[in-house]
Amino acid sequence: AAAGLSYVGGYVINTYKSYDNFLQDKYALLPAVIIICVAVVMFIIGLIGCCATFRESRVGLGLFLAIILVIFIAEVSAFVLGFVYREKVKTDVQGTMRSVFEKYDGKNPESTVVDYLQEQLRCCGVKNYSDWTTTQWFNSTGNNSVPLSCCRQDVKNCTGRLDQPQEL
């Protein structure tokens, strides 16, 4: 389990590099760091449990049980906090995404990240393609279209025009 958690934490940190323009809050990596710390603690606790079982130590097994109970309480607390603050996180991420979409010009690094995000997640805009109508890029191009990264991957010759929403 500790190895699995370590992998998940490392994967989240590695994936963060692709989306760091959307998650300007540096505390966004905190869950991944916590996951890795929990993996280290789980390894140590597992080692204590194995040694206590091997030696048939009542004190060691009692310590192991107490640690497992503390971990269970911490997991329940984390679940409750995640449930309580889910709307705040959603609002913060959407606000940051809107500000990054406002900076889109098709050339800067933020534009590359927006294109990558839309292609990987197969989406267009923050909520849908109509989000692009309020951006500076949309108004400056004057061609009534969204970036080509909004196009469905199975559609050939997509122009990104809003009068053809079935292609987006």
Short account of what is shown:
The protein is mostly helical and 168 residues long.
CATH architecture of the domain at 90-167: Orthogonal Bundle
Number of strands: 0
Q: C-alpha Rg, in Å?
A: 23 Å
Low-confidence stretches: none
Query: The biggest beta sheet, please?
Result: none
CATH fold name of the domain at 90-167: Cd81 Antigen, Extracellular Domain, Chain: A
CATH class of the domain at 90-167, please? Mainly Alpha
Mean pLDDT, to the nearest integer, reads 81
Give me the strand/helix succession: HHHHHH
Tell me the structural class: mainly alpha
Termini Cα gap: 41 Å
- The number of distinct helices, counting runs of at least 4 residues, comes to 6
The helix content, as a percent range, equals: 55-70%
Percentage of residues in DSSP E strands: under 5%
CATH superfamily of the domain at 90-167: Tetraspanin
Silhouette: elongated
